[in-house]
Amino acid sequence: LPEQEAFDIEYWLLEEAKLQRMPKPKSLAGRVAFVTGGAGGIGTATAARYLTDGACVMLADINEDSLKATSDHLVQRFGADVVRTVVMDVTNEQAVAAAYADTAVEFGGVDILVSNAGIASSAPVEETSLDLWNKNMDILSTGYFLVSREAFKMLRAQNIGGSIIFVASKNGLAASPNATAYCTAKAAEIHLARCLALEGAEAGIRVNVVNPDAVLRGSKIWEGEWLEQRAGTYGTDKDGLEEMYRQRSLLKRSVLPEDIAEAAYFFAADTSAKSTGNILNVDAGNVQAFTR
Ligand code: NAD
């Protein structure tokens, strides 16, 4: 064989041997996932991803109607035994504790938390009322703290480790126009995850962050004030904005709820057993494109 071809074959054999030694992806069979904002676009896609791999899912959301519609859809697809719902406000300490207690009754415990419930708000800083600021902090930062604290209690008591995934935002790393309260609250989520990763490591509790860029499809955030404000800044409508984000990204791809779900699956599964305190931007390269 010519030298180059011989080299290629050896290289391939080496790669193949490496692949054989790598742990195979394990399913989530027997695991229980608690998903906040489970009735929203990203939460529903993540729940469906976990259910596909054999997990049981507790969908927790403040919106009872959306929760019912989402649950009906998932039950139809995956069966009634593996899906439960709880109406819960992430800012309500007692409601959060009660929702975990419900999950223990229904499924015997919790292995995975996806902290994802959120809102978005848009206002220049001079027009950001204290109420608006507090709302962002309450739902995004404090809400993430409360659901994580209850998860820690349950995971420690079970003593079998666990995985916590924060759906934060690229806006927690980079500023976005007229969204100071949102961006600051998202930054706090990311730092909370780092602190929890440190605290949980000894008990095998991993904490990682998925940072979506704009996910317009399926998201209720992009239906109200946030959309109007962004449209004013950048474009004209939801489709126009999605196209703008796509064009702006390095990969020229739109980010979909399923893309976030796949990243959240990676951090839930054992293939990420050696990752904690990590941040994965799912942004089609948008962050890099923007900062070039
Ligand atoms: P979505 O509005 O479709 O879903 C959010 C869900 O959270 C809704 O079902 C809502 O009812 C629920 N929720 C809101 N406040 C709550 C509360 N106090 N208690 C319990 N549930 C509450 O939005 P999404 O796009 O699926 O967003 C999910 C997460 O992803 C949010 O944290 C959001 O900030 C983040 N994110 C979204 C985007 C995007 O472009 N869609 C980008 C970056 C980050």
TrEMBL record:
Entry annotated with the keyword Oxidoreductase: yes
One annotated GO molecular function: pyridoxal 4-dehydrogenase activity
UniProt keywords, alphabetically: Oxidoreductase
Signal peptide as annotated in the record: none
Lineage: superkingdom: Bacteria
The family this protein is said to belong to: Belongs to the short-chain dehydrogenases/reductases (SDR) family.
The protein, known as: Pyridoxal 4-dehydrogenase
Gene: pldh-t
